[in-house]
Amino acid sequence: MFNDADAPQPPKVLSTPLEINANLRQLLDSHDPLILTFPERSQRFQSYVVHVDKDSDVLALDELMPRDGERFIENGEPFRIEGFHDGVRVAWECNHALTITEVDGHRCYRGPLPTEITYHQRRNAFRAALKLSQLVDIVVDGKHLRGDGPLRGKLLDISATGCKLRFEGNVETRLQLGQVYERMKAGPPLGLNDVMVELRHLHYEERINTTFAGVRFHNLTGQAQRRIESFVYQLQREARRFDQDDY
Questions:
Q1: 113 phi and psi, to 5 degrees?
Q2: How far apart are alpha carbons 184 and 177 in whole angstroms?
């Protein structure tokens, strides 16, 4: 159903300053969220790249959310950072102490640039967008979902490995990056029940009062995987037919 070119690529380790700087600058310019994990801690924290300077060998990260993770940085505990940019996972480890400071009144953590980063093209699969008239209803629920009741929204696009969701209003406080939610349901024609998803991206667009979320499928059953791939393939065929009709 998907050819070899659509398969995820193996990770690469980048070690030249030029490659490292280019990838960190992409995370900076796109304001892509980062997930920080400490080996001895179960909690995950969110941050952003706020400054990259190859000449002075300086990298600065935004204040951690939740803020209580800052004490682990104060203690000099090592941690791992990962972010996603256009389907590419960029990850590195920080094993040295960071300086806690402020830039333009905003708290941040400064330290040297990493000496190597892992670059992993996780998703090369066709990502199928749904027509506005055919958006699929979805429900997200689980023990880690904050607030009362499940979240109801729409499925905007989908690939074999994940999908993009839309929710009315600002629901950022109900969700946490890196968290796994055990029960996502998708209505017909997709028809998924209790699929586990991991939140990889979260953004509230104030102008249209809408929250967008990117999730990655987690521990899919064979049946669910086949249903998703069949649905993506169907959308892919429809998109190709539509493109041909334009000529």
A1: -65, 150
A2: 16
